[in-house]
Amino acid sequence: MAFKPQPMSSTRFDEITALCKRRGFVFQSSEIYGGLGATYDYGPLGVELKRNVREQWWRDMVYANKNIEGIDAAILMHPKVWKASGHVDAFHDPLIDDKASKRRYRADQLIEQHIDRLRSKGKTERADTVQKRFTEALNAEDMPKALHSLILSEEIRGPDSGAFDWTDVRQFNMMFETKVGALAGEDSSIYLRPETAQGIFVNFQNVLATSRVQIPFGIAQIGKAFRNEIVARQFIFRMREFEQMEMQYFVQPGTQLEAYELWRSRRWDWHVRNGIPASKLRWHVHEKPAHYADAAVDIQYEFPIGWQEIEGIHSRTDYDLSRHQEYSGKKMQIFDQASGSRFIPYVVETSAGLDRTVLMLLCEAYRKDVVEGRSRTVMAFAPSVAPIKVGVFPLLRKDGMPERARAITDALRCEWNVFYDEKGSIGKRYRRMDEAGAPLCITIDRDTLEGEGVTVRNRDTLEQVRVADDQVPAFVSDAMRGAA
Ligand code: GAP
Which of 2, 338, 341, 373 could form a disulfide with 155 if both were Cys (CB 3.0 to 4.6 A apart)? Predict the structure, then answer.
């Protein structure tokens, strides 16, 4: 029996992407030329949201841990890096085309979604059987062929067309290749990095020599990565140019699984602290970890388009450092004074997509409710990531209210991103700020001019309180840190 897969879009997702464009979170890249597939630009609100996530990650990873240092490596690297890392030979996706819709899909993901559907329908035994066959297919000598047979025997249909008319499964390398220098020739070929991690591995001895860290220690980096994604139609979920927030944690061989468990729980907690309910997160254990890993798990979030990966935690063994030692001829061993031993460290990696984290926050924040009989759209961001922290309005454009409102805006502006607005009715101004996700709005009215303070309105509770002018910066500070 065949099950009809869910489409890879949803009304809610479409509403969120429309809001992103309308309010200036995200734009299609090169839109005036018809756009460029799977590449996006961040607008004024989006860039603030993304910066806040990036800074939050850096603070929690680098500043909060005395044994983690940061770096910022170049996107272009020596081509041997990608030979050594295995990306030239093994960075492939198994893809299959639906002949009816002419759309392309990842064969492994079609099967995983099929297993999820069986489980959600209570067909546990059948799901277990397919899961077992899936694991065997992933480990088969001819993996594309084995995945193809499983798709056929399970009668998995095209998610968009509902048809059962598949091509063979083929492997595609996802690295972007380009040329350096004036002369194009075989020797001038290089790649845009498909992950930031290798910039950390090749700098591992440099960081060790120039900082005070000792094993176990981490190196963190945030930066662009590029993949020639073939299946790319889920807004900023899957892009060809995107940003990663990666940390490689170097440990004594034999202690990697302890570190793996530690970082699994720390990374889960980080997402929850950013306002994601634990009920919308789940673990996804890799049936067949990547060529470099001895254990790997993803954190998935329940997007409106289904459960999808936002971050991977991988126990990468000493694979990368050993390969770089082999290919570069440079020693990757370290001497550990505490144990008096010399070894190539093992590595546990945490690898989060910055853009995917932003998309998750957008999806989680988006809600519609009705206030005083009128519907509103609210982006209920946690204050720490909200792109605008405070909207400031003079009730009227006269009687000195704009001047007072501007003075308050200026007092807050040196610390927070504040938006001054005097246009339209007060209700409309609140709604504009609700859509932008500003946690607080401050209104200056006649009572303010008479020394009665300002009105501060809370986006989520709609509660309004009066706060003395000189107490406003402290009130905002407390609210942004979750103390008000
Ligand atoms: N260094 C390990 C690594 O790159 P990965 O699972 O391929 O592992 C890590 O990628 C994270 O990068 C993913 O969990 C995802 O959040 C993000 N990511 C990967 N490909 C992406 C894409 N095409 N667009 C947006 N984010 C992507």
Answer: 2
CB count in 10 Å sphere of residue 58: 16
pLDDT band at 9 (very low <50, low <70, confident <90, very high): low
Q: Which residues contact 21 (CB under 8 A, 6 or more apart)?
A: 27, 28
- For ligand 1, pick from 202, 233, 351 the residue to mutate: most ligand atoms within 8 Å of CB: 351
Rg (CA), the chain: 26
Q: For residue range 330-388, list pLDDT tens digits in order.
A: 999 999 888 889 999 999 999 999 999 999 999 999 999 998 888 999 999 999 999 99
Task: Convert the pLDDT of each residue in 119-136 to its tens digit.
Answer: 999 999 999 999 999 989
Ligand 1 near 197 CB (within 6 A): yes
Q: Which residue bears the tokens 């005097």?
A: 422
What are 7's two structure tokens? 């489409």
Query: Ligand 1 center to residue 296 CA distance, Å?
Result: 13
Q: Positive or negative, the Cα torsion across 268, 242, 55, 22? A: negative
**CA distances for 293 relative to 314, 324, 358, angstroms:** 6, 16, 27
| Residue 311 beta carbon below 6 angstroms from any ligand 1 atom | yes
Chain centroid to Cα 292, Å, comes to: 22
Compute CA distances 399 → 360, 424, 450, 465, whole Å: 44, 17, 12, 22
For range 449-467, the mean pLDDT: 96
Give the dihedral of Cα atoms 191, 195, 197, 203; nearest 10 deg: 30
Q: How far is the CA of 340 from the centre of ligand 1 (A)?
A: 37
Centre of ligand 1 to C-alpha 150, Å, is: 26
Name 170's bridge partners.
95
The tokens of 15 are what? 């509403």
Provide the CA 465 distance to its chain's centre, in angstroms.
36
Q: Is the pTM of this model over 0.70?
A: yes
Q: Is 308 in the pocket of ligand 1 (CB under 6 A)?
A: no
114 alpha-carbon distance from chain centroid: 25
> What are the angstrom distances between the C-alpha of 216 and each of 210, 310, 441?
16, 26, 46
* Averaged pLDDT, 148-171: 95
E-strand ranges in 121-203 read 170-173, 177-179, 189-191
The residue whose C-alpha atom lies closest to atom 27 belonging to ligand 1 is 353
CB count in 10 Å sphere of residue 102:
10
Strands in 464-467's sheet, in edge-to-edge order, are: 418-420, 390-394, 440-444, 454-458, 464-467
